[in-house]
Amino acid sequence: MPDYAVLAVFIPTFFFVSITPGMCMTLAMTLGMSIGVRKTLWMMLGELVGVALVAIAAVLGVASIMLNYPQIFDLLKWVGGAYLVYIGINMWRAKGKMAVIDNAQMNTRRASLISQGFITAIANPKGWAFMISLLPPFINVDSPVGPQLGVLLGIIMITESVSMLAYASGGKSLRLFLSRGDNIRWMNRIAGSLMMLVGVWLALD
């Protein structure tokens, strides 16, 4: 299991990144308003499965490299840290526009909703890049990887579920809040600042 210092950094960082408006969160909000929260849960199920697969693949792939080539561990930390700083800077510079989803083209059957959430999660290159750069440095290769991955994955699943439920349940009020002034931009800046701090911490740790 990761130590408490690692969790104290990981939890708030992933929470603010997760809650920041993106394709999955906007999809959850749009579906919540158009077909209701209960039906939106099927899309969320698919999205969570997709996110879990991406996270597991990222950790196991990079962890295997670390185990077989421990001499490049420091290089990976620096590259990962630098990429997180790069993401943070881009989030600071983001204009804060919400994704546009066409309600008329949505298929509300259960299987379609599940596949829509799943495909949205696994087909997002930014999601892969984020998982590959953020998750592995929180894994201690000198300890069993499975329990550590299980804890981090549990945190990710809870955070994603809470965020999507908030967007699906918030509906029109949340959309009004996010469209008012610079609210999205400030959410991006909070998340971006945390990303930059974590990037520096990972590189220097």
Automatic annotation (TrEMBL):
Keyword Nucleotide-binding annotated: no
Pfam families with a match to the protein in the record: LysE
Highest taxon of source: Bacteria
Bilayer topology term: Multi-pass membrane protein
Subcellular localization(s) per the UniProt record: Cell membrane
Transmembrane segments: 6-29, 41-69, 75-92, 113-139, 145-166, 186-204
Keyword terms: Cell membrane, Membrane, Transmembrane, Transmembrane helix
Name of the protein in its database record: Threonine transporter RhtB
Annotated source species: Shewanella ulleungensis
